[in-house]
Design a protein that fits this description.
By secondary structure, the protein is an all-alpha fold. Helix content is 68%, strand content 3%. It contains 23 helices and 2 strands. The chain has a two-stranded antiparallel sheet with strand order 1-2. The protein starts with 5 loop residues before the first helix and ends in a 7-residue tail after the last helix. The relative contact order is 0.09. The C terminus is likely disordered.
Length: 561
């Protein structure tokens, strides 16, 4: 298996699929969908083969090393460890899910859509495999264009603004990282006389004293800002809500489930091993920003009227746990950070798809436009509640394990920081359950309001008051509760017969079908994973812990020691 270039095949197979779509998809409207699905399925199967062949007690495996630009020290160097192998499998799974979801929902410029998606998959896989900084930077930049296209062409009303904002933020971080790469490359050459961008060789530069404390501080900062933008960590997060809201559903899923994880991966793969002294100096700053981000994301999510934007700000809060767990500098925190990344991929990706289900039927994402969906869409409601509970960290689901371990790691680092952080976790339950209550069990179209609910429109209040005080829910006989319109859901509304809103703020969901087989096929696997790994996460820890220990042991100083 060692001689079989499985990493290269995994990485570039999606590009082969993209080329096939461009060649074969001109005259056959089904070809782009079929090729994209076949390509992503084959990539997923290969990633599972790699996972089953992975030696849990070893370091980098399946390595491929070929000298490319010898005089510059650039090589084609690919390899995976316990950190990257799990993220690669998650990436290939989400790619399959995204193509299944897009099948039938994307009807405009399908060839270009699936080509962009497949090239994006190649960029994401390459990021998790590259062990040469030059190759890594190529893959990092490769992701930028197709993701911007997905937002800018197939997104919502303000898609161009969101795409440009995403592009500029990411490009700014990338340019800073490029400066850091050049500075480190030159420092290593000055110390050893060797030109190399091999990550494992550059990591030895710290042990050799090739990087001064001052250099480590500033170069760490350059890498950190690039990865913090991708996480996104407060205050580098402002591109994310716009990108999520304006993206097509599959774009939001990829963005949440995979692309945000690249920031956390970069911090683990590069910042800690390459710049241990810089990491020690920056750790208090990063931990402070992480705690602020956790609190800020929760508070802003509380007041969001848009379902997608609420979930986007919840991502800011959840990803704060990732950076917090990484920089408390102990194994419990790092284990928790990895589990949060994986669980967030399952849960938030599924939540974006579930929002996409009702958006396709109602053409709005406003929370106030929905109510009582449990009575019409039982399967949808059940899955929505499952992933809501997983997102707030209910024990027995995947979201709990990671946040619990980050709590332990943070307490070990600083009990006060742990108390401040996890005393506000209740906000996650607040905004998620409040949203679920309104959408899943709230007052449906045409349902008479209960005066005790404080959910009456001004016209309904006047109508009840005109009946006299004895009839305000305390009247006589069967006429105690007069029939009223049903509030915002059908006040002055005229149903157009198709379940779409007749005007802003009014949705009749009574005629909506429940989830289709295609929608279930895309979402149910994520539900199974969030339950299985919530109950039995041991296999994940067995894979990733040796690599996480190597990150800690490979640093000349362990943060928090």
């Amino acid at each position: 298996m060692d001689s079989f270039p499985i990493l290269s095949i995994l990485t570039f197979l999606p590009v082969v699929g993209a080329i096939a779509i461009m060649v074969l998809g001109k005259d056959n409207s089904m070809a782009p969908r079929q090729i994209a699905l076949g390509t992503t399925l084959l990539t997923f199967v290969l990633s599972l083969i790699m996972l089953f062949q992975f030696d849990r007690n070893d370091s980098f495996q399946f390595t491929e090393h070929h000298v490319w630009l010898k005089d510059l020290g650039v090589s084609y160097f690919m390899g995976v460890d316990g950190i990257s192998v799990l993220l690669i499998v998650l990436t290939t799974l989400i790619a399959v899910v995204s193509v299944i979801w897009s099948w039938g929902t994307v009807v405009k410029r399908e060839r270009e859509y699936y080509v962009s998606m497949l090239i994006l998959v190649t960029g994401m896989l390459g990021v998790f495999m590259a062990l040469d900084l030059f190759i890594f930077y190529i893959f990092w930049e490769l992701m930028l264009v197709p993701m911007a296209l997905l937002i800018g062409i197939w997104g919502s009303k303000n898609r161009v603004y969101a795409a440009i904002k995403f592009f500029l933020y990411t490009l700014f971080g990338s340019l800073l990282m490029l400066v850091g790469i050049i500075a480190m490359y030159q420092a290593y050459y000055n110390q050893t006389g060797i030109r190399t961008l091999n990550v494992l060789e550059l990591q030895q530069g710290a042990a050799l004293g090739a990087y001064s404390d001052n250099l480590q501080f500033w170069v760490f900062g350059a890498f950190f800002i690039a990865f913090a933008i991708k996480v996104p960590l407060f205050p580098f997060h402002t591109w994310l809500p716009d990108a999520h809201v304006e993206s097509p559903t599959a774009g939001s899923v990829i963005l949440a489930a995979i692309m945000l994880k690249m920031g956390g991966y970069g911090l683990l793969r590069f910042n800690l091993p390459l710049f241990p002294d810089g990491a020690e100096a920056w750790a208090p700053i990063v931990i402070t920003l992480s705690i602020i981000g956790i609190i800020y994301g929760s508070l802003v999510a509380l007041v969001q009227p848009d379902l997608k934007k609420l979930i986007a700000y919840s991502s800011v809060s959840h990803m704060g746990f990732v950076t917090l767990g990484i920089f408390v500098g102990n194994l419990q925190g790092m284990d928790g950070a990895m589990m949060v990344m994986l669980a967030h991929g399952f849960n938030t990706g599924a939540l974006f798809m579930l929002v996409g289900v009702i958006y396709e039927r109602g053409h709005t994402r406003l929370i106030d436009a929905f109510g009582g969906l449990a009575s019409q869409m039982g399967k949808w409601a059940g899955l929505f509640i499952l992933f809501t509970f997983a997102s707030i960290g209910l024990p027995g689901l995947s979201g709990f394990i990671g946040e619990f371990l980050v709590a332990l790691g943070t307490y070990k680092y600083n009990p006060t920081a742990a108390f401040i952080t996890f005393s506000v976790v209740i906000f996650a339950a607040w905004y998620m359950l409040q949203m679920a209550q309104r959408v899943v069990w709230g007052r449906a179209w045409g349902q008479a309001p209960d005066p005790a609910d404080n959910d009456l429109t001004p016209a309904e209040v006047l109508e009840l008051e005109a009946l006299g005080p004895s009839d305000h829910g305390h009247g006589h006989g069967h006429d105690a509760h007069p029939a009223v319109s049903g509030g915002d859901h059908d006040h002055h509304a005229e149903d157009d017969g198709d379940g779409y809103p007749t005007h802003e703020g009014q949705i009749n969901s009574s005629k909506w079908p429940d989830m289709t087989p295609r929608e279930l096929l895309a979402i149910v696997p994520l539900g199974v994973l969030t339950i299985v790994f919530g109950v039995y996460p041991k296999p994940l820890f067995e894979i990733m812990e040796p690599a996480l220990k190597a990150v800690l042991e490979g640093a000349t100083r362990v943060i928090g020691s």
